[in-house]
Amino acid sequence: MEKLNIEKPLLHIFVCVNDRGETQNGQKTSKPSCGPTIDLEELKNLKIRIKLSQISCHVKLTQTKCLGFCSPRGSIILLQPKQEYYLINSVKEIEDLIKSELSITTF
Ligand code: FES
């Protein structure tokens, strides 16, 4: 194992996009998943906006599978390095969280 001495971002946001889909007989699975509740196109657009902005070296946005706190009420995100979990209902809430954490009004 090699420890990498890389510059750490101020924020690294992991967004669960896990989608359990349906069972083989077309029924919804009994356990909820985040994927169906988040707009992947909006998430992709936010990621592009971050990459093209002045905050690109400070903020990383990563799609991930199940973070273990599945909810039928929205999607789970993990904010690092604070190790805080949030339940969100829109990509806009991720954008608002970034602005709040960086104390900025736009990017
Ligand atoms: S499916 Fe998203 S936290 Fe489990």
Topology:
Layout: E1 11-16, H1 40-51, E2 59-64, E3 75-80, E4 84-88, H2 91-102
Parallel strand pairs: 1-2
Antiparallel strand pairs: 1-3, 3-4
The protein binds FE2/S2 (inorganic) cluster.
Describe this structure in words.
By secondary structure, this protein is of the alpha+beta class. It has one domain: 3-Layer(aba) Sandwich (Glutaredoxin). The protein has a four-stranded mixed β-sheet, with helices on one face. A hairpin with a 3-residue loop joins strand 3 and strand 4. The longest helix is centred in the middle third of the chain and has 12 residues. The mean pLDDT is 93. FE2/S2 (inorganic) cluster binds next to loops.
Strand content: 15-25%
Radius of gyration: 15 Å
Structural class of the secondary structure composition? alpha+beta
Mean pLDDT: 93
Which assembly state applies to the chains in this document? single chain
Runs with pLDDT <50, length 5+?
none
Quickly count the helices.
2
Measured between the Cα atoms of the first and last residue, the distance is 37 Å
The domain tally reads 1
CATH topology: Glutaredoxin
